[in-house]
Amino acid sequence: MDVNEAELEKAATKIQATFKGYKVRKDVKKDDEKPEEAASAAPVEEEIDIDLNDPQVEKAATKIQATFRGYKTRKVIKDE
């Protein structure tokens, strides 16, 4: 599988942004704060709303996971 570095980086950024947005929303809900108060307390970051069921996002996550598993396997073989 040919891994394009730009595609891999874009996919990782997309997944990370989605998770960060999810975590912030969860924290705000947990603390029962108004969104304005939470936004003023935390540094402002661009939030990207991504559908986690989107086939492109799933494909990106799969590509990242496969690349990491390959890296991990090669490292184990090298260390043996």
Automatic annotation (TrEMBL):
<protein>
    <submittedName>
        <fullName>Neuromodulin-like protein</fullName>
    </submittedName>
</protein>
<dbReference type="InterPro" id="IPR027417">
    <property type="entry name" value="P-loop_NTPase"/>
</dbReference>
<dbReference type="GO" id="GO:0005516">
    <property type="term" value="F:calmodulin binding"/>
</dbReference>
<dbReference type="Pfam" id="PF00612">
    <property type="entry name" value="IQ"/>
</dbReference>
<dbReference type="InterPro" id="IPR000048">
    <property type="entry name" value="IQ_motif_EF-hand-BS"/>
</dbReference>
